[in-house]
């Protein structure tokens, strides 16, 4: 535990030592406002809730989370600091977990900083704050799953751009697998079991309920499981590739 | 105590380290010599536990990496090749991070940092980001990081690469002054570094251990070891020198006018040469005994395998 917190502190402060965290948070806030007001029609709907805001989160994370995850391992390998890190008396999983937590906290911070939206709907109407809180938790969990994919892809390559593109592609697959575009393509020929399986892999399907404030155990379990699996895959990759 | 048995490492069909066996005892300062790509760094990476061996066995202080990897890592201080460090941190932040990971807290942590900072003289750059430091300072940050926990085993991959002569001297003094019961392994291309700091030399080429003895023994392998070189202030006939008892052969460099006399194995010829020069009133203006030329020995040893 001690090691993780020391590593976490290093990772977290390195986000703020460079402009990465500031740019990320800035862009996240601007884009989430743009999406919810101009595309989601937060005012026009005439309802005091944050559904339009949360609905765009999967699409926002699709590009922003890989951007924050891409340097985590790729840079360690490129600059050779991985040799330093891996010969310190720590385990690789501690390093992986610390990297994930540090970036996850930055994502959480970005979510917290969207509080003016929450204030706005509370000023304009009388929303169910329990639902909003649950949706925030759901969104944060989902971002953790995106992040673990990004970390795994970053472990795969020394090149940050390649890591970014690969994780956007993988994240995209996970997002769209539940959308109608994909499901329609399956509908005509595939048995419903297969369709359900594909749909159940989707971030969208699992986030939908959460965005409405319902935190079901299976959605929660799904995101945690996805996170753990990708982090584990990343760990295997980094052990194999660290010397390349 | 480091014990390496039948150590091999291959990467996709090419063998980087080929059946190395050696033991290193406390108090030994070992110089790893070898051409580029000889397997020095790979061997070091395996001893530090960064790379797993393809086959063979490494024991550090009677512990093996399979069962006690963290314990071994606590005992080792390692400066990787190129002295990598987190560029966005300042040396103070970086050393604090390393000290905390190594388990130091509070006043002890501060004392450790103060001590290494003085040892490698980092005071003036403590608050500048590492990425903005000069090569010499970066290397010293790397050294400080390796020394901070006063490790039993110190492994330095090219510690003086990129340093100016003063800094090189300083680093060598630092290594010499480390406690006498430590194991130090340094890799280098610089041959005189080995005689300056090491008491044991290993030459590796193509992953094989070709030489393992004291620096003095390495000198003795040179055909120049014990040879006497003289220079005359004007041209003189030196042919009689070659006839002296104990002299095996003579070499004359026409460009510099230097004459080198090689002794028969085990003979000392300095006194014979000086006596002869005095007797024949040879115009000698300089005369010295060769210590053996390491670059020649190095080439001889390493080229045998490459050819």
Characterize the structure shown:
- The complex is a heterodimer of chains A (244) and B (307).
- Chain A has one domain (2-241).
- Helix content of chain A is 80%, strand content 0%.
- Chain A has helices spanning 2-17, 20-39, 51-55, 57-69, 71-79, 81-86, 92-112, 115-124, 129-156, 160-176, 180-187, 192-200, 203-211, 217-241.
- Chain A is globular.
- Chain B has 2 domains: 2-220, P-loop containing nucleotide triphosphate hydrolases (Rossmann fold), CATH 3.40.50.300; 228-290, Alpha-Beta Plaits, CATH 3.30.70.
- Helices cover 35% and strands 28% of the residues of chain B.
- Chain B has helices at residues 40-47, 65-75, 91-101, 106-120, 135-147, 165-177, 191-197, 215-220, 270-279, 294-306; strands at 2-11, 14-24, 29-33, 55-60, 63-64, 76-79, 153-157, 183-188, 200-205, 208-213, 228-232, 247-253, 258-263, 284-289.
- Classes of the chains: A mainly alpha (244), B alpha/beta (307).
- The A-B interface holds A 3, 6-7, 9-10, 13-14, 17-18, 79-81, 83-84, 86-91, 242-243 and B 11, 45, 48-51, 70-71, 73-74, 76, 78, 80-82, 84-89, 93, 97-98, 100-103, 129, 145.
Domain module tally of chain B: 2
Based on Cα principal axes, name the global outline of chain B: elongated
- Cα end-to-end separation of chain A: 29 Å
Task: Please mark out the parts of chain A with pLDDT under 50 across 5 or more consecutive residues, or reply none.
Answer: none
Task: Give the class-level CATH name of the largest domain in chain B.
Answer: Alpha Beta
Which structural class is indicated by helix and strand composition of chain A? mainly alpha
Helix fraction bin of chain A: over 70%
Named CATH architecture of the largest domain in chain B:
3-Layer(aba) Sandwich
**Major sheet attributes of chain A:** none
Extract low-pLDDT stretches of chain B: none
SS content category of chain B: alpha/beta
Morphology of chain A: globular
- The CATH topology of the largest domain in chain B is Rossmann fold
Q: What's the total number of strands of chain B?
A: 14
Radius of gyration of chain B, whole Å: 24 Å
Lateral arrangement of strands in the main beta sheet of chain B: 6-7-8-3-9-10
Written as H for each helix and E for each strand, in order along the chain, the element string of chain B is EEEHEEHEHHHEHEHEEHEEEHEH
């Amino acid at each position: 535990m001690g090691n993780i917190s020391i590593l976490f502190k290093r990772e977290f402060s390195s986000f703020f030592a460079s402009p990465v965290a500031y740019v990320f948070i800035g862009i996240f806030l601007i884009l989430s406002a743009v999406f919810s007001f101009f595309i989601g029609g937060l005012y026009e709907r005439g309802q005091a809730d944050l559904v339009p805001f949360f609905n765009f989160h999967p699409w926002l994370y699709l590009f922003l989370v890989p951007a924050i995850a891409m340097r985590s391992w790729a840079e360690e390998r490129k600059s050779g600091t991985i040799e330093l890190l891996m010969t310190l008396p720590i385990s690789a999983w501690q390093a992986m977990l610390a990297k994930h937590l540090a970036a996850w906290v930055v994502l959480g911070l970005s979510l917290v900083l969207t509080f003016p939206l929450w204030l706005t709907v509370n000023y304009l109407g009388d929303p169910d704050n329990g639902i909003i809180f649950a949706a925030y938790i759901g969104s944060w969990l989902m971002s953790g799953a995106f992040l673990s994919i990004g970390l795994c892809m970053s472990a795969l390559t020394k090149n940050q751009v390649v890591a970014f593109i690969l994780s956007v592609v993988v994240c995209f697959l996970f997002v769209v697998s539940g959308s109608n575009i994909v499901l329609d393509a399956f509908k005509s020929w595939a048995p419903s079991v297969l369709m359900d399986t594909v749909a159940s892999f989707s971030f969208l399907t699992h986030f939908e309920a959460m965005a409405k404030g319902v935190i079901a155990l299976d959605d929660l379990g799904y995101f945690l499981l996805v996170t753990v699996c990708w982090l584990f895959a990343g760990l295997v990759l980094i052990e194999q590739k660290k010397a390349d | 105590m480091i014990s390496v048995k039948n150590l091999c490492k291959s990467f996709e069909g090419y063998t980087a380290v080929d059946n190395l066996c050696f033991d290193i005892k406390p108090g030994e300062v070992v110089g790893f010599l070898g051409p580029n790509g000889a397997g020095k760094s790979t061997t070091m990476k395996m001893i530090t536990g960064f790379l797993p061996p393809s086959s063979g066995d490494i024991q550090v202080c009677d512990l093996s990496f399979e069962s006690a990897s963290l314990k071994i890592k606590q005992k080792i201080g390692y400066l990787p090749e190129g002295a990598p460090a987190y560029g966005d941190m300042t040396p103070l932040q970086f050393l604090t991070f390393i000290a905390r990971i190594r388990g130091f807290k509070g006043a002890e942590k501060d004392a450790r940092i103060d001590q290494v900072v003085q040892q490698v003289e980092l005071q003036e750059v403590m608050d500048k980001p590492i990425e903005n430091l000069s090569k010499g300072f970066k290397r010293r940050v790397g050294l400080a990081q390796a020394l901070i926990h006063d490790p039993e085993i110190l492994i330095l991959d090219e510690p003086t690469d990129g340093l100016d002569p003063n800094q090189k001297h300083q680093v060598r003094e630092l290594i010499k002054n480390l406690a006498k019961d430590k194991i130090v392994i340094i890799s280098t291309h610089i041959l005189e570094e080995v005689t300056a700091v090491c008491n044991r030399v290993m030459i590796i080429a193509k992953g094989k251990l070709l030489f393992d003895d004291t620096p003095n023994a390495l000198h003795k392998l040179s055909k120049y070891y014990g040879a006497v070189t003289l220079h005359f202030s004007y041209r003189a006939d030196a042919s009689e020198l070659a006839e002296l008892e104990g002299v095996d052969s003579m070499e004359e460099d026409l460009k510099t006018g230097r004459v080198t006399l090689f002794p028969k194995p085990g003979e000392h010829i300095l006194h014979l040469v000086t006596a002869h020069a005095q007797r024949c009133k040879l115009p000698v203006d300089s005369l010295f005994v060769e210590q053996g030329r390491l670059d020649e020995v190095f080439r001889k040893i390493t080229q045998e395998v490459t050819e």
